[in-house]
């Protein structure tokens, strides 16, 4: 396996869906790595040295070189450890579609559920939930279109877009338990509800 003997470290935080996304990719590719939990309120020297611009997790350090931003890291992992199934679709159009929806998740879905978490009042939370539901609807359509009727966006196996979405799901469960809100509702988004 390419890069098999290389030193691999991941700077992350258990609460970060973006770090979870990278951990999922490393696991799927069978990459051994050292996980280094970061304190996001008291950022350490290694995090600041390896991601001096954004100063956030995740950061993958491979053979002493940092790679930042979770989607870029997932693509890097997919290319460096290319043995086995690829996380990205094989065809150019499929890759473009997967990248579009992954960016949609990060640019629209993540801020939508974070706004529910940060809402100061029940009224505000209800409004933010409606915004989140409007964002989730197109994801249901994307799953139907991309999956070909199978369980994952990539069809029979977990792929790039599955990682992009599924790393957020543990927070959806937390929102339900904390505030009684359901972001993915089986009556409105039945395919996503099975994720």
From TrEMBL:
GO cellular component: cytosol
Superkingdom of origin organism: Eukaryota
Enzyme class: transferase
Subcellular location: Cytoplasm, Cytosol
Keyword Acyltransferase: no
GO molecular function, one term: glutathione transferase activity
Domain GST C-terminal: 91-195
Residues of the signal peptide: none
Residues annotated as domain GST N-terminal: 6-85
GO biological process: glutathione metabolic process; toxin catabolic process
Pfam families attached to this UniProt entry: GST_N
InterPro entries according to UniProt: Glutathione-S-Trfase_C-like, Glutathione-S-Trfase_C_sf, Glutathione_S-Trfase, Glutathione_S-Trfase_N, GST_C_Tau, Omega/Tau-like, Thioredoxin-like_sf
Catalysis performed (reactions): RX + glutathione = an S-substituted glutathione + a halide anion + H(+)
Enzyme Commission (EC) number: 2.5.1.18
Keywords in alphabetical order: Cytoplasm, Transferase
Family named by the database record: Belongs to the GST superfamily. Tau family.
Function: Is involved in the conjugation of reduced glutathione to a wide number of exogenous and endogenous hydrophobic electrophiles.
Protein name, entry field: Glutathione S-transferase
Higher taxonomy: Eukaryota, Viridiplantae, Streptophyta, Embryophyta, Tracheophyta
């Amino acid at each position: 396996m390419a890069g098999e003997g290389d030193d691999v470290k991941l700077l992350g935080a258990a609460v970060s869906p973006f770090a979870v996304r990278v951990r999922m990719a490393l696991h799927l590719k069978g990459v051994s790595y050292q996980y280094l939990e970061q304190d996001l309120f008291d950022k350490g020297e290694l995090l600041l040295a390896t991601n001096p611009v954004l100063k956030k997790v995740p950061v993958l350090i491979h053979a002493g070189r940092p790679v930042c931003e979770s989607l870029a890291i997932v693509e890097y992992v997919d290319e460096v450890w290319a043995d086995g199934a690829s996380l990205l679709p094989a065809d150019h159009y499929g890759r473009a579609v997967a990248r579009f929806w992954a960016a949609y998740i990060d640019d629209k879905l993540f801020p939508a559920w974070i706004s529910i978490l940060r809402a100061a009042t029940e009224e505000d939370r209800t409004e933010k939930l409606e915004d989140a539901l409007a964002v989730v609807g197109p994801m249901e359509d994307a799953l139907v279109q991309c999956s070909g009727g199978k369980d994952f966006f990539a069809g029979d196996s977990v792929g790039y877009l599955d990682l992009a979405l599924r790393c957020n799901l543990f927070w959806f469960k937390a929102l339900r338990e904390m505030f009684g809100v359901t972001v993915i509702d089986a009556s409105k988004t039945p395919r996503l509800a099975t994720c």
